[in-house]
Design brief:
It is built from four helices and eleven strands. It has 258 residues and is α+β, with helices and mostly antiparallel strands.
């Protein structure tokens, strides 16, 4: 495997909305610790440089403190490493949210980056669904395959148990496009996960519970209990409709917290 797990260090003095997730399979080994109520500090060790850059951007623009070390079977392909990183980050976010009491739950953000603008709307509903509308002209940005961007967000959405709509509104440079998508998601997630000043103890649902929410202090649901996330249609920026992606991404072998 390619990657340096020895670089992983837990967060110092994490707050109550923090979580640790360790995933170790024959394909990847990922150690992640994050705190929702941080200041955006990131310590990232990733064997794919652009993926590490995007994780740092996600942490900075959501003001999450994130320590993560990633190793993967890059001799096979990048797919396992990128998808499993999305699974681990999404699972850590879900556990850190707990029962999701007192949060705003929904938010949206349009994020401009030079000629590019990306939009994200998110509902921390406990029901996973990803609508992803973006296309890229290059096969890679840096070392990372651009077709894995949707794989990352689908895996994260599934593990987080959230409804996420990501749309590339305009853009020409693929680096800018991907970075704007990550930053739009980060900012929308921060707003949705923020504590509502008038409903600190309330679960933001008329049902009194959110599906897929992690109960504070209890283990996460088993992989068999996790729902697969349907992936919505992908549209290129030309406006022509691309073939709809179908199916979802499983949480098979997602380890419990160690």
């Amino acid at each position: 495997m390619v990657g340096n797990l020895s670089a992983f260090q837990p967060l110092p003095a994490p707050g109550p909305r923090s979580a640790t997730v360790v995933r170790e399979t024959r394909e990847t080994k990922i150690h992640c610790h994050l705190d929702l109520d941080g200041v955006g500090r990131a310590e990232v060790s990733a064997p794919i440089g652009f993926l590490g850059h995007m994780l740092e951007a996600l942490a900075r623009h959501s003001h999450i403190d994130l320590h993560i070390a990633i190793a993967g079977d890059l001799q096979v392909d990048q797919h396992h490493t990128v998808e499993d990183t999305g699974l681990v980050v999404g699972e850590a976010l879900r556990r850190a949210l707990g029962e999701r009491r007192g949060i705003w739950r929904t938010a949206s953000c349009e994020f401009p980056m030079d000629e590019t603008r990306a939009a994200c709307a998110i509902d921390l509903s406990g029901r996973p669904y990803l609508q992803f509308e973006a296309a890229f002209s290059r096969s890679h940005v840096g070392e990372m395959a651009t077709d894995l961007v949707v794989e990352f967000f689908a895996a994260l959405t599934n593990a987080l148990a959230a409804n996420v709509h990501l749309r590339l509104c305009c853009g020409a440079n693929d680096h800018h496009k991907i970075e704007a998508l990550f930053k739009a998601f980060a900012r929308a997630f921060e707003l949705a996960a923020a504590q509502h000043p008038r409903a600190v103890a309330e679960i933001p649902s008329t049902k009194g519970a959110l599906d897929g929410a992690a109960a504070t202090g209890t283990p996460a649901a088993s992989p068999a209990q996790q729902a697969a996330v349907p992936v919505g249609a992908m549209r290129p920026t030309s406006g022509k409709r691309a073939q709809t992606e179908s199916g979802g991404f499983s949480l098979d072998e997602l380890d419990e917290v160690r």
